[in-house]
């Protein structure tokens, strides 16, 4: 069996959008879909009746989601799990060995404060598989992910193969154009010393390096139209503005320990402000 796409849900509108996005993605990629709901671990003094009530409530959430998806995406193989654990630990365990993990912008209960709180940012910064954050303010009902270009933001000072590989594959599957963006700014120390962009314009060199970074995947995917942008702009602003109308925005996050600090500043900012689903791909340091 191929690696599944795992999606977390709590039955909220935000997570329902994430589940629908994940189902359309599973159909697009020909992969099974695994729906996960986390319920709190019952305290030691909890009665058997209360524990069973909690389990039934969680089961109802995933069964409702599964029934809806089987009606709309009957070709997608779907499984469900109700896990008695914290949202982060449940998702980490269920996503182990998955192709990717899909989460909503925020949720309630087991997935409370998603994106603007701790859970999805924790997963995006430390998960060993790509994490897709589906923003609830995006009209994303599955069909939209087949329209609009795929945008990838890369840092030429880091390893780029993982982000570009994911992005080229996403563009190929969607029949979409790929826009690869490297944004740069003049270092503050040079600005303070009186240098201007004209004095230290790195764009020609960066364009060469960006072209070299994309060369192998361009040759492997000749069917993908790839546009390369080197822009003098803050990375979060550059990527957020280009996410308007995009089907997917792809960024990288350095692999970290599970108890390491939060997501990097660019990926963190993009996750908050992008106007398209954001795929955060783990990259080697």
TrEMBL record:
The keyword Nucleotide-binding applies. It comes from the Bacteria. Belongs to the universal stress protein A family. Gene3D superfamilies: HUPs. Keywords: ATP-binding, Nucleotide-binding. This is Nucleotide-binding universal stress UspA family protein. Residues 1-135, 150-282 form the UspA domain. Pfam families: Usp. GO terms for molecular function: ATP binding.
């Amino acid at each position: 069996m191929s690696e599944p796409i795992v999606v977390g849900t709590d039955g909220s509108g935000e997570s329902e959008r994430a589940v629908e996005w994940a189902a359309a993605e599973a159909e697009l990629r020909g992969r099974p879909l695994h729906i996960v709901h986390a319920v709190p671990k019952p305290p030691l003094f909890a009665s058997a009746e209360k524990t069973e009530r909690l389990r039934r409530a969680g089961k109802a959430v995933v069964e409702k989601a599964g029934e809806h998806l089987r009606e709309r995406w009957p070709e997608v193989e779907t499984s469900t799990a109700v896990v008695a654990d914290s949202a982060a630990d449940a998702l980490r365990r269920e996503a182990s060995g998955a192709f990717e993990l899909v989460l909503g912008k925020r949720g309630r209960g087991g997935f409370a404060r998603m994106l603007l709180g701790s859970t999805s940012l924790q997963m995006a910064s430390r998960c060993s598989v790509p994490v897709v954050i589906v923003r609830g303010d995006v009209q994303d009902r599955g069909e939209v992910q087949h329209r609009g270009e795929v945008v990838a933001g890369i840092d030429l000072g880091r390893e780029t193969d993982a982000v570009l590989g994911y992005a080229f594959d996403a563009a190929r599957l969607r029949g979409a154009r790929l826009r690869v963006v490297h944004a740069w700014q003049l270092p503050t120390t040079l600005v303070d010393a009186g240098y201007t962009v004209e004095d230290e314009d790195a764009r020609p060199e960066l364009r060469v390096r960006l072209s070299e970074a994309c060369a192998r995947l361009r040759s492997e995917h000749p069917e993908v139209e790839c546009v390369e942008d080197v822009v003098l702009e803050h990375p979060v602003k550059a990527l957020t503005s280009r996410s308007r109308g995009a089907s997917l925005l792809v960024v990288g996050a350095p692999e970290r320990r599970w108890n390491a600090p939060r997501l990097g500043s660019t990926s963190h900012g993009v996750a908050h402000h992008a106007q398209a689903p954001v795929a955060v791909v783990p990259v080697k340091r």
